[in-house]
Write a structure and sequence with these properties.
two-stranded antiparallel sheet; mainly alpha; globular; 4 helices; Cytochrome Bc1 Complex, Chain D, domain 2
Amino acid sequence: MRHIHRTGRGLMTGASAALVVCLSVGVAPSWAQSDEEAEAGRELVETNCSRCHAVGTADASPHKAAPPFRKLSDSFPIDALEEAFADGRIYSNHPDMPEFIATPEQIEAIITYIASLQS
């Protein structure tokens, strides 16, 4: 059941009320942090990966052997990608893939973005 809270200006859903409470005490809700993290991941993959990979929801990979990020879960467990990035063990079907080194925060952002694309 959705909770509805009455405000001076009308009705507010439970989620809206929670957002107001979080923002008024200076705490970002976890889904907002995930959105920010996914956006940071999107920026990283657009900068570092889009030369070969499709990194959006409907684009085609410029490099024919580079899988679209939205289809990675068809071949790889997304949870395993984080460990592979951290260990520098990202292998590809295209031998000209450059080495990619990222901080733990960047890896988390990239994984969050890739996970958000999976259909």
